[in-house]
# Entry
Amino acid sequence: MVEKEEYLKPPVAALYAGHTALQLAQGFIEEGLQVIIFGPRDRLRLYSRFPAIRTRLVEYWGEETLDEIASEGGVIILSGGVVEYLTPRLVLNTRAPVFGLRGLVAWESDWRLKMKLLEEAGLPVPRYFTSIDEVEGLVIAKLPGAKGGRGYIVTRSRRELEEWVNKHLTSGALESGEQVFFQEYVVGTTMYAHYFQSPIMDRLELTGFDVRYETNADAVRRLSPRNVEELRESFVVTGNFPVYPRERLLEDFIEMGERFVEATKRLIPPGIIGPFCLETVVTEDLRPVVFEFSGRIVAGTNVYLGGSPYLALYWGRPLTVGRRVAIEIRMASEQGRMGEVVT
Ligand code: AMP
# Structure
């Protein structure tokens, strides 16, 4: 926990150059806070192109850059880019304060812990198997870490799974001893539910939903069956669509978010802070099944760059999740409660 005295000046938002940096930068600027965007040089250029995004751009060299940012009052905003580019190890160990529950990063990068948390929350999850011998029915096999959906396979055949594992061991995509994860493939429509847990207001807000546009899972719809035979499923995200679930599903989604928040409080105190996402498949009996979660802002929130209609139900006007994060930090700073939103 960070001491109150360290936050006598308004905090500076430190954003990784990528993922959701545009909406976060815009949100902080609108809340009157300063912004640093850091990343490799070739990633920074994008952020100098937009006149309304008035930020300092800082080239990232490693841990020292984070120390410098921290010494200037910077707070690193947890995002997909931060976890993937800085690596989970550095996120867990940096001296810089992090907006969000950084301890959750360790749970997210381990399948067993991930499923343990979802089960602790009592959420409906797909069956999963840790070895090929246990596999039953239609499964999706996932490579470990942030391999981003590339090279996944969906099959009923144990023989195909063995071939798939061997292929990835040979190509080096999988190192021996690394965990492969076999999960029941749930048939339904994917919906990614986005939430914001506010320690300052002590409430959970539903911020919206997206669906991912994934190659080549989505691309095969454009080809005739005779041309897809040789294609393997892969789920590399190229963009996102907004989706509005049927209204009767909203209560379920909200209760699921609440259960997730409570489980993080029990297992990883002080519990989740700020944005998170439950990745679900909604089955034909209208049941959302959670196959994954992200304990930080997800890129799917970019679908409401103009402001989320769901956040308008709490705030009376549409807000982006970036703006919502900035509001939380501004309120925490004004009330001398920064220690409740950073870890
Ligand atoms: P993930 O890397 O876990 O986010 O999965 C990538 C994509 O695979 C998701 O966006 C879904 O389209 C699909 N997917 C993952 N797990 C499942 C599952 N258990 N059932 C059905 N589809 C899934």
Observations:
- The domain at 127-184 is CATH 3.30.1490 (Dna Ligase; domain 1).
